Amino acid sequence: MSLADYTKPTVSLSLRWITFLTLSNVICSRTDLVKLSQLTNLGALTIGKGVGCPESNFDDGIIRSWSRAATEADAFSMLRVLTCCSQKDITTKSFVYLKQFPSLTFFNVEDCDLCSGDQMKIETLGWKSKTLKGLGPWLQIGRGVTRGWDLTIRACFQHGRALHLEDQTVEAILATDLLPVLHLSLGDYDLDAEFNMGGDKIMKCFRRLIHPKARPAGSTRSSKRTPNELENSREVPRKKMMIRASKKHNLEDLLTSLGT
Q1: What is the distance between the alpha carbons of residues 31 and 132, in angstroms, rounded to a whole number?
Q2: Which one of 49, 78, 88, 111 is most buried, counting C-beta atoms within 10 A?
Q3: Is the Cβ–Cβ distance between 13 and 38 less than 8 Å?
């Protein structure tokens, strides 16, 4: 079976749910990876350790193809979080391509060869580097700060709200936040494992720098707010439903319960 055979059931054309996809120790064709751009309701994507192709590794070229799809076919319109783990062929070139993703706010890397000397260049490309320790204010979930993969990605998605506010109202963004999440994990990876907090393989988070357009003088205030206003909004969405397949509930049953 191809990668698309596994991911196709997670697509909701009517946007009844958001899909989080985690790949780890998966070998597939470059075409299969490029076609992930066809997942219209993808909100978070994790390319974990051991993901690659028989002919090459995961690299800037795949992200460039995704960027082209985002520009030409409105792909990744809901993708807010991209995470890569142990992908050594990613370079700073990817940050140029990632700017074409309309809603992408967080690019997380762990055990990738992006060194501290790259940070100044990365910032000139529109991204600000932070360690996970610097994300404390965004990771207050439940009883305290979480460092687990699954919960951290959920937190990044929740707080990485859409950037192009000239095209989306606050109401539309908050409506997206209220959708249930289907998290599909393919391969052998512990979603509850903690991010690396120290050493050479430390988890780094790159947050997209937001430069809101100035409101013309004399213009009236509309329902579209600046990113800072949205970030500081007192409107707190209800707790998001998280869905995972288990031995008692398979993927088909879960999707049927949501209404496909």
Answers
A1: 32
A2: 78
A3: no
Structure-token pair, residue 20: 């989080």
Q: 186: how many CB neighbours lie within 10 A of its CB?
A: 17
Half-sphere exposure at residue 70, Cβ-oriented, CA atoms within 13 angstroms: 21
Contact assessment for residue 57 and residue 84, using Cβ atoms and an 8 Å cutoff: no
113 CA to centre of own chain: 20
116-153 pLDDT tens trace: 567 888 889 999 887 666 566 656 544 444 556 777 78
Q: What is the rounded distance in angstroms from the CA atom of residue 66 to the CA atom of residue 45?
A: 12
Q: How far apart, in whole angstroms, are the C-alpha atoms of residue 250 and residue 233?
A: 37
The answer to whether 196 touches 202, Cβ cutoff 8 Å, is yes
- Cβ burial of 222 (10 Å; 0-12, 13-18, 19+) is exposed
Start-end of H helices in 8-99: 30-34, 60-73, 93-98
Q: Which has the minimum average pLDDT: 25-39, 211-225, 242-256? A: 211-225
The size of the chain, in residues, is 260
Q: 166 or 157: whose pLDDT is higher?
A: 157
195 burial (CB, 10 Å; 0-12 / 13-18 / 19+) is: buried
CB within 8 A of 77, min separation 6: which ones?
40, 70, 102, 103
Q: Are 33 and 194 in contact (CB under 8 A)?
A: no
Q: Do residues 64 and 99 lie in contact, with contact meaning Cβ atoms separated by under 8 Å? A: no
pTM above 0.85, yes or no: no
Query: What mean pLDDT, rounded, does the chain reach?
Result: 76
In this predicted structure, the answer to whether residue 156 has a pLDDT above a threshold of 70 is yes
